[in-house]
Every structure is written in C-alpha cells, then in structure tokens.
From TrEMBL, chains B, D:
Molecular function terms, GO-annotated: phosphoenolpyruvate-glycerone phosphotransferase activity
Residue span, DhaL domain: 4-202
Signal sequence coordinates: none
Enzyme Commission identifier(s): 2.7.1.121
Name this polypeptide is given: Dihydroxyacetone kinase subunit DhaL
Keywords, comma-separated and alphabetical: Kinase, Transferase
Source organism (scientific name): Nonomuraea indica
Broadest EC class assigned to this enzyme: transferase
InterPro entries: DhaK_L_YcgS, DhaL_dom, DhaL_dom_sf, Dihydroxyacetone_Kinase
Length: 326, 213, 326, 213
C-alpha cells in the first residue's frame, strides 16, 4: 500500500489540518469543521458527519447554503457523540439543529446518543437511506445512506439559509431522501490506511455490484463490462425501485480513484438511459463527491425533482466541494 | 473481585485486542468495512489511559469509566454498543462483587446491547457471543461454581458462540448488506466479545493462582 | 485493466458526449468544447487544448472568466491543427485570440501549424513550462507545461473578461508562467485505455520523482516515504528553482487516482514548508485539476502573486471545473 | 514507380504499423507516453481511407494526401512531423518518378522533419532512422543501383539507425525529460520510420517480381 499520509493513526487529523489551511472559510476545532462565519441567529443549523474517507463529503460541504458543521470520524468510523454534541451546540442559532445522518448502525447510534445529551437544543434528525442495493426489510439494518446525502445536505441547506423553521427543513430533507435512489459499482476495492491492504480482492475480470461507500463487498460479482452495460445495470436497479419519470437530478459520482474522464463516459450512458425511459435529466453533477478512499468505480444517484426542489438545488451554495451562484 | 480485578480485566482485554487487531480487521474486511480491529484497539487503549488518569476506587467505577471512554472515543457501531454494555454493567454492579452479582450485571450489559442495537441472537452480531456467555454465567451461579470456573465457561461459551456465527446470515449491522454472502464468515464483533471474555477468564486464573500463593 | 469506457477508441468522444450532456453551459462541436454563450464582441478569445486524460483540464475550464474553447486530442496526444483552427476562428470576437500551449513538442507543433493557417485572425500564443523536474537546456525540449496551465488559464481568462487587449493578455499570461513552478511525484503509473496496461511498473516500495502528466517516467526513483517527506522533496525542488517568498498561490493537485483526503494531508505539509521559508500561502487550490488518467500521486504548483495577479485570481470564474464569485 | 506503387507503399506501411502497434506503444511507454502505436495506427488507417475516398492520379498526390491526412488526424509530435515529411516529399517529387527523383524528394522530407522538429542526428528521434535511409538512397543512386536494391539498403539503414538510438540520450521530444534514463531504449519514432522504409523495400520487391513475370 502506498498512500500520501504520515501515519495511519494521524491521517484524519492531518487531513483536517490541510482543510483548515486551505479554506479560510472553514474553522476546525476539536474534530469538528465549522463555517468560519459562525452560526446565524434565527437560522436552523445543519450538522452532518460520518466516517472519514468520503471526501469531500461531509466537511467539504460546510459553508453558505449547505452545512453549518461536519463531524468527521476516523476512516469509515462514525464520529463519537462528543463531536456531535459540540457541533450541535455551537451551530444552534436559536432555531434548532437538523442532524443529517446516513443510515448505518454506527452513525445512527452515535447521533442518537448525542441528540439525547443535547436536550438544551431543539434537534431534529433525518435519516438518509437511498441505496437500492440493500433490501429495506426486517432482515437488514435498512438501506444504506450514500449519494443522496449530498442532495439532502444541499437542498436542506438552501431551505435553512432562507430562514425556514426546523420542522420544515426536516420535512423537506426527508422528502429529498424519499425521492432519491442510488446504486454503486466497484472496479477495485479501497484500501484503508489502518488495514494497509485492499478490503476485498477483485480479479481484473470482475466488478462488484451494489457496493456501499466503505469497501463493504457488494451483493454479487459479474464479469467486467462496458460503461454502457454497467450504467444500465445501475440504472435498472434504480428504476426498478423508483420509476424514472419527469425531471431528475442525477449525480454520477466517482468512488475516489476513478478519473473524471471515465465519469463523463458513464454520465453519457446514464443520460441516454434516462431519455430512453422518457424521463429527463434536469440537473446533474459529475465528479468525485461521495467517495470511498481510493476505490475505482462509480455510483449513480437520482432524485425526482419538483419545482420547489429545483429552486432549492439552484440556490447559491459556497463550500469547498460545491459552489455556485455566489 | 476488587477494583484491581476489573482494572486488570480491562487491561488484559486491551492487550488481547491489540494482539488480535489484524484478525479482527480481517474478519471485518470480509463482511464489513475493515475497521473493527482499529476501532477496538483505539478504544481499549483509551480505556487504559482513562483508568490511569482517573484511577477507579470501586469496581462499578472501573466499568463506568471503560464504558464512557468507549462511547467517547470509538465511534462506529461497536463504540456505543460496547460502551453501553460496560456502562449498564457498571450501573448494575453491587459492591462487594460476588459471582451472582457479576452475572446479573453482565446480563444487564447484554440487555443494553440488545436494546440499543435492536438485534436478537442469531442476527450474527456480538450478541451471539455475549448472550451465551451470560447464560453460562447464570448456569454457573446456579451450580455454585467458583468464579474461575464460571468465567472459564463463559469464555468458552463466547468462543463457541462466535464460531457459531460463521454459518449465520447477518441481519444487523453492516454485514446485513451482504445478504447471503455474509454466510461463511465469523462476525468480528462476536470475535472481539470472545476476546474480552477470554481476558476475564485469564484474570480469574491469575486471581485463583494468587489465592493459592 | 478495468476502465469505465465503452471502447479505447471511443473514449474521448464518449467523454465529450457526457460533458455536453452534463453542462448546458458548454457546447461541443467537432471535437471542440465552447462556451454555449458564444464569443463576446471585443473580448480576446482564449483557446487551449492538449491531449485528453488530464480532466478537468482543459475542457472543464471553458466558461466565464476562463477559456472560450478547448481542443481535446486523443488520450495524451495533442489535438490536430483542424480543431485549433476551428476553435480559433469561432471564438474570435474581433480582438484576437490567445493560444495557451503546454510546452510539449506535439502541442507546440500543432498549435504552430494552426496559427499559421489562421492568418485571418490575430493570434498570440503563450507557452507554459513550469515543471522544474525537467532541465530547461539545449539538451531537452525545455520544461514541460503542467499545473501552471490552470493558473495561466484562470488569470488570463479574468483579464480577457475585463476587456484587456490581446498583447496585454498575452503578456500577463507569460508573466504567470514565469512566476510559476511545479513538481510531481507518482505512487503508481497511469494506464492508457489504448495500451491497457500501466505505462511503467513501480514496486510497492518506491515512488517516481519528477513525473509529468502523461505517464512519462520521472527522473529517478526513491523509496516510498511519508507525506511530509514527499512534500519536502517537491517543495525543495520548486524552492531551488524559484525561491519561495512573499504571497504565493499554491495548488496541491491530484494525479487522478489520489483521494482528496490524501491531498489535504499533503497540503498541510506544503503549507508548513512554505511558512518555514518565511513565505505565505495567500491563495490555494487542493484537488484533482491537472490529472494523468488514474495515476496516484500529486504535484505542487506555486505561483508568486502580486496584487494585480491576486485580484485576477479572485475574479469570478464559472466553469465546470473551477467556479467562484458568480 | 507509378501512382499505384505509392498507394501500395502507404497501404503496406499501414499494415506493418498495425501489426507492430503494440511494440511501438511499448517502446513509447518506456521513454514517452505510450501512444505512438495508437497514433500512427490511427493516422495510417485514415491515410488508407483518404486514398480510397480521393484516389490519387499522380505519385505526388498520393504523398500529399498521406501527409495532409497525418497532419489532420494524428496530433502529437509524430503527426505534424510525419505529415510534413510526406507533404514535403510530395511537393518535391517530379513525375515520372525516377530513383534519383525519389531520393531527392525523400531528402526533402527529411529536411522538413529536421526543420520543424529542430532535431539533429543523434538526438534520438525519427531523424536517426530517416537520415541514414536518405543517405543510403543517395549513395545507391550514385552507384546506379536498381530501385529494389536502393530501397532495400534504405530499409536496412533505417533499421540500423533505429537500433543505434538505443544507447543514445534523448535531447528532443518527450524522451528528453528522462535525461540519462532515456539511454538503453529504442526510440519509437525511429522504429516506426524503419517500418515505413521496410514497407518501401517490400513494395519494391513486389514490383521487381512483377517485372519478372
Ligand atoms: N445492531 C447491532 N447489534 C449488535 N451488534 C451489532 C449491531 N450492529 C453491529 N454490531 C456489531 O458491531 C460489529 C462491527 O463493529 P465495527 O466494525 O467496530 O463498527 P462498524 O460496523 O460501524 O464499522 C459487528 O461485527 C457486530 O458484531
Ligand atoms: N523534435 C523532434 N524532432 C524529430 N522527431 C521527434 C521530435 N520530437 C519527437 N519526435 C519523434 O516523435 C516520436 C514520438 O511520437 P508520438 O509518441 O506519436 O508523439 P508524442 O511524443 O507527442 O506522444 C519520438 O519517438 C520521436 O521519434
Ligand atoms: Mg466502520
Ligand atoms: Mg467495521
Ligand atoms: Mg502523446
Ligand atoms: Mg508518445
């Protein structure tokens, strides 16, 4: 394993130092990343977080029109309650705080514990669970939260910026999650700094379907295929769960080790697929946004927009990872 | 079983976890996200530090310190789960500690994990090691066994329970995402639970030997 | 080799289709990427281009405040004169066109041929040659153009947007190049779609120092080291050529396969190095901007700013790959 | 040497390049950017198409079409260089084509490459195959050899010239970035030049055989 790190133990700390040095708009304190501008009175605060290794998610989405604070855990390990409590208290501008939580046992438990201990702040919480590769049944921990997290953070962030009350921000955040679905495909495993070797072995002839963002193996392996075929597999999985109609927000997301050129190749296929179903890509995002360390592969996330959500998506955002209109 | 016993238990658990760190990570790589070894190593290292910084004056305090530290330092699923287990155990533990008292407190810890994680035996989680261990303790109490014998049986039950997760299909935690592919692998949390109970039996041996001296 | 492509032959075409579908602000026609808004009368047009595989460079930098057109060649192969001629004619708003050319034999020759054949348009040209890994002597083709290309495109783009005349835009572009230096380090080789295997083999214990952006092997190999040590190697090389003083624009750039988390780790070290020399990081960029397909590694590019260049760097830019202030 | 001769030459060159595509790419991977095989294959495939779409009516026209197509379709360093070589050769070629005329035109092509690329013999480029080939042609003319003999000697000279690039240190093109590390590898452009001259000799054999029939 070769990684640009000092030690496996210090990688999260070191990366946060780099973020702080690179972005004067951020303030990093005790493993929480805040807007340097601080909380705004009367604005609902947005706090998210999760394991590190998914950059720019979440810390890269702290800023105007998106998050107020992000709590990065160790690599692939959800943050501890202390971080979340600190963040929640710090960003409360009196209008309460929304926790945006990806649906993993660890994230859920730690955010729950934190919320319980923040009884001085009005806290609401939205669970993101968009990954159709996971059956949502009694026999699983429920769907994983992946790409839709970005959509929820962006749209809820825009609404909060406009001064909407906590209940409304929470409702729209949950609505975005309900309207969103994802599916991911890996060409290679990631390698965590601590383990020092690939989480799974995948031969050069196979791909792993239905992967998450933590190097968890997927549901099954199939022979490597063309971008067109792989895009179709992902899109059929999404379409089978949430029929593609109307105006869609579509993200073709790289897992961290996939170059942009290839993501554009995939996007062309995804867009053609969607057109073939009679729906329309109305807004889109192509790039490495919700990553899994150095994994090669992609995920597609689709959200069924309406006028209001489109307006909120288009609203100005100014973060290291996502920026427009400002 | 005095405060020193509990401190030694936690320290020995930390050592065993440190030594088995890579195995735990590999188990987690197979059906999870390859961080269980790092998580628990970090957590129990912090527990040892906390026990030095705030030396406990009672057994319950040692467990509460351990539980709080795990919750505050680990993250992930295992942090809150193990943390709550130790905290619940600490809250339930009566001074002076007797074997029946220990068994009851341990069961309170297991119940806390079940409640927080909403998992049941057979779901392929740490519960599948912890619950059999708890049953073994209760049975040992009923049979009037010595602490050493009781802890030894609990450790064996946890070991067996952990191995019994291999053919199970996961229904909770990250491994549940794999569906059928989770079959054939030992659950990392069950394996770490077995280590922690192994440490318990080990400390009891030391104690027993000490008494002989 | 596993890549998200349809065929090695169609990869550039397919990626351009994806870009066109993803970015309504762009128009792709005959292998040239334009601003959809077309040329602006009286504004100097900016045309750049080069081999594909460096995305988002160059096509991702087409838009307000940066390029007017980009000419992507095949993977790692400079574009052909036809593309450049088309682009040059199309973006001329009457004030002439600046060609921004990275210093590679192929790019230089093809842009020269194109310029000769565009005698109806006033064309100036700037050569970017910032890579200190290459000796600039009679015995080489001169320094390579790498990361500084982004700086030149951004700053010249801002100046052109403000209505400066061609000679002035060309002068400042050359000035930015003169004030900029880069150095790159690879942890792995890239794999071109056409070759289907890594361009060079690099053992897990070694890194390649002084690499370019085309998978060319570097000047030498050394044992793998920490982020701190590798950052120091890169920065010493830069500092040895252009002493680090004053206010600096600093980019820590990923080669395409390196996750953002690691780039932040490197940035922290680079920033500390610069502080140690008594200089200051005044503006910065951390991310995958001037890439080499799926290569893992990084490059650092430093530019000595002055007040005017800082103002131009800060000016609004609105492209798929770089966006702020608008 | 009629128009058909030149068309056959270019087509055979295309075939040889197609067959040696991977070798050219590997040579370029060692000291360049691994695209020389793809570049020339793409270029000469386009040349063959162009020769079908616009069938040349004179030898010079065949060379001009080839040169223009290479410039318009290849890109990179080799596109303009080979393109200019064929165009310069086409411009210099007199109809009907004699061996002295061919040799003079070929030299014009080499000069065009030298002028455009500002490289000299010994810089480890295609020049190191093309220049010896040109010298061999001129010498053959002076000795009054047949075209077949002349082209054969030119091909051998190009081969030897290409192999002679192995110990050279590159001073032009991408390979120059490697400094000392460029030593020990054959230059891809020199190797492709040898292929093109090999095709020339091959076509001359065919012609010679035809005359015998
Ligand atoms: N709901 C649950 N109830 C009980 N134990 C659980 C539950 N979810 C996960 N676990 C245990 O946690 C272990 C994983 O811990 P760890 O890898 O540290 O956390 P994470 O899954 O967040 O990466 C599993 O092997 C399992 O034993
Ligand atoms: N200045 C030059 N003069 C002559 N030939 C050159 C020059 N630069 C490069 N070449 C030739 O071009 C070859 C490389 O061609 P190719 O790989 O197709 O282009 P690129 O170097 O742009 O990738 C080299 O092997 C060399 O023979
Ligand atoms: Mg984890
Ligand atoms: Mg885990
Ligand atoms: Mg090339
Ligand atoms: Mg090449």
């Amino acid at each position: 394993m070769k990684k640009l790190i000092n030690t496996a133990q210090s990688v999260v700390e070191d990366a946060l130092s780099g973020m702080a040095a690179a972005h004067p708009s951020l303030r990093v304190r005790e493993r929480v990343v805040y807007r340097a501008s601080g909380p705004r009175a009367g604005k609902v605060g947005l706090v998210s977080g999760g394991g590190s290794g998914h950059e720019p998610l979440h810390a890269g989405f702290v800023g105007y029109g998106m998050l107020d604070a992000a709590c990065p855990g160790e690599v692939f390990t959800s943050p501890v309650p202390d971080q979340i409590i600190e963040a929640t208290r710090a960003v409360d501008g009196g209008a309460g705080v929304l926790h945006i939580v990806k649906n993993y046992t660890g994230d859920v438990l730690n955010f729950e514990l934190a919320a319980e201990l923040c009884d001085d702040v009005q806290v609401a919480s939205v669970l993101v669970d968009d990954d159709v590769a996971v059956e949502d049944s009694l026999y699983t921990a429920g769907r994983r939260g992946t790409g839709a997290t970005l959509f929820v953070e962006k749209i809820a962030g825009a609404l909060a910026e406009q001064g909407a009350p906590l209940a409304e921000v929470a409702r729209v955040a949950a609505d975005v999650d309900e309207r969103s679905r994802s599916f991911g495909i890996a060409l290679t495993s990631c390698t965590t700094p601590a383990a020092g070797k690939p989480t799974f072995e995948l031969p050069d002839t196979q791909v792993e379907l239905g992967i998450g963002i933590h190097g968890e193996p997927g549901r099954r392996r199939v022979p490597m295929a063309s971008a067109r075929e792989l895009a179709a597999v992902a899109m059929e999985a999404v379409h089978g769960d949430l029929p593609l109609t109307g105006d869609l927000l579509v993200m073709v997301n790289g897992m961290g080790g996939t170059p942009l050129m290839e993501l554009y190749v995939v996007f062309a296929e995804v867009e053609a697929f969607i057109r073939g179903k009679g729906a329309r890509v109305s807004r889109s995002l192509v790039g490495n946004y919700v990553t899994s360390l150095d994994m090669q592969g992609f995920s597609v996330t689709v959200c069924r927009l309406d006028g209001e959500l489109t307006r909120l998506w288009d609203a100005p955002v100014d973060t290291p990872g996502l920026r427009w209109g400002r | 079983m005095d405060t020193g016993f509990f401190v030694t238990w936690l320290r020995d658990a930390a050592t065993r976890i440190r030594l088995q760190r890579d195995r735990l990570t590999e188990l987690d790589a197979a059906i999870g996200d390859a961080d269980h070894g790092a998580n628990l190593d970090r957590g129990f290292t912090e527990v040892c530090k906390a026990l030095e910084d705030w030396p406990p004056t009672a057994p319950a305090q040692a467990l509460l310190t351990a539980g709080t530290t795990l919750i505050r330092r680990v993250g992930g699923a295992s942090g809150p789960l193990y943390g709550s287990a130790f905290r619940a155990m600490g809250k339930a533990l009566q001074d002076p500690v007797t074997l029946p008292g220990f068994a009851a407190a341990f069961e309170a810890g297991v119940v806390a994990v079940e409640r927080l994680g909403k998992a049941a035996p057979g779901d392929k989680t740490m519960i599948d090691a912890l619950a059999p261990a708890s049953r073994a303790l209760t049975a040992a109490v009923e049979k009037g066994l010595t602490p050493y014998e009781a802890f030894h049986r609990a450790a064996v039950a946890a070991e067996e329970g952990s191995r019994a997760t291999i053919p199970m299909r996961a229904r909770k935690g990250r491994a549940s995402y794999l569906g059928e592919r989770s079959v054939g692998h030992e659950d990392p949390g069950a394996a770490s639970s077995a280590l922690i109970l192994g440490a318990l039996a080990g400390v009891a041996v030391k104690e027993a030997t000490k008494e002989v001296d």
